[in-house]
C-alpha cells in the first residue's frame, strides 16, 4: 500500500511473496515539497534516489571516522585493487586526474596512503594504502556494512543477491564519463 498525504493506492504483489512487495510509504503533504518517487516512477529516478540514500548513509559513517565518502572509496579501491597506477585508479573510479590527485594528496598527508614509483617506469606512480589507512578503511567498511544491512533489512538474501546482479548488469563494462563521487 502506498500512501501519499490522504490518498491511498494499493499495490498488487507481483508474486506470492506479497509481504516482500507490500510497501508502505507515508508522506504528509507538509513533508513533501515536490514529487516523490512511486512504484511507477522512471527507473532512472528510483536508482538515483536509492543511490542518494546509500551515499548519504555511507557518507555519514565515513565522516564519523574523519573521512569524506570519496576518500573512503579511494581507500577501498586501493584495498581491493592494489598495484594500479594513479591513472588506472582514476579511470576505475571515474575521477579526473585533478580530483584524484587532490584526494591522494590529502590521504598521503594523513599517512593513509603512500605513492611509489612504478617498477620499470619512474614516470608512473602507484598509490598504496598504508597500515593506518587499512585500519581506518576497515573500520568505516564495518560501520557502512551495518548501515547497508539496516537499509536492506526485510529483504531476503536472495532478493539482495538479485539486486546486486541487476545493478552489476546495468553498470556493465562501460566507462562512465563522469563520477557520482
Number of strands: 5
H/E topology pattern: EEHEHHHHEEHH
The share of residues in extended strands comes to 5-15%
The shape, in one word, is globular
> How can the largest sheet be summarized?
3 strands, mixed
Adjacency order of strands in the biggest sheet: 2-1-3
Enumerate how many helices there are, as a single number: 7
- Chain-averaged pLDDT: 82
* Helix proportion: 40-55%
User: Which structural category do the helix and sheet elements fall into?
Assistant: alpha+beta
Low-confidence stretches: 1-30
* Alpha carbon gyration radius: 20 Å
Can you characterise this structure?
- Mean pLDDT is 82; it is low at 1-30.
- The chain has helices spanning 18-21, 43-64, 69-80, 86-93, 97-109, 131-151, 157-171, and strands spanning 2-4, 7-9, 25-27, 113-118, 121-129.
- The radius of gyration is 20 Å and the shape is globular.
- The two termini are 34 Å apart.
- The strands form two sheets. A three-stranded mixed sheet has the order 2-1-3, with no helix packed on it. The chain has a two-stranded antiparallel sheet with strand order 4-5.
- Strand 4 (113-118) and strand 5 (121-129) form a beta hairpin.
- The relative contact order is 0.12.
- The protein is an alpha+beta fold and 181 residues long.
- Helix 3 crosses helix 6 (131-151).
- It contains seven helices and five strands, in the order E-E-H-E-H-H-H-H-E-E-H-H.
List the helices and strands and how they pair.
Blueprint: E1 2-4, E2 7-9, H1 18-21, E3 25-27, H2 43-64, H3 69-80, H4 86-93, H5 97-109, E4 113-118, E5 121-129, H6 131-151, H7 157-171
Parallel strand pairs: 1-3
Antiparallel strand pairs: 1-2, 4-5
Amino acid at each position: 500500500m502506498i500512501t501519499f498525504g490522504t490518498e491511498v493506492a494499493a499495490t498488487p504483489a507481483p508474486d506470492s511473496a506479497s509481504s516482500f512487495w507490500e510497501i508502505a510509504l507515508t508522506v504528509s503533504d507538509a513533508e513533501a515539497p515536490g514529487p516523490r518517487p512511486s512504484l511507477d516512477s522512471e527507473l532512472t529516478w528510483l536508482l538515483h534516489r536509492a543511490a542518494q540514500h546509500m551515499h548519504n548513509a555511507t557518507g555519514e559513517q565515513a565522516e564519523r571516522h574523519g573521512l569524506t565518502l570519496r576518500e573512503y572509496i579511494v581507500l577501498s579501491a586501493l584495498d581491493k585493487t592494489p598495484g594500479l597506477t594513479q591513472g588506472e585508479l582514476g579511470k576505475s573510479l571515474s575521477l579526473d586526474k585533478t580530483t584524484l590527485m587532490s584526494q591522494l594528496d590529502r590521504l598521503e598527508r594523513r599517512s593513509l596512503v603512500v605513492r611509489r614509483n612504478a617498477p620499470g617506469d619512474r614516470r608512473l606512480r602507484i598509490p598504496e594504502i598504508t597500515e593506518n589507512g587499512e585500519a581506518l578503511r576497515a573500520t568505516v567498511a564495518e560501520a557502512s556494512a551495518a548501515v547497508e544491512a539496516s537499509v536492506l533489512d526485510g529483504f531476503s538474501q536472495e532478493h539482495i543477491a538479485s539486486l546486486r546482479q541487476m545493478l552489476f548488469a546495468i553498470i556493465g563494462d562501460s566507462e562512465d564519463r563522469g563520477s557520482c563521487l
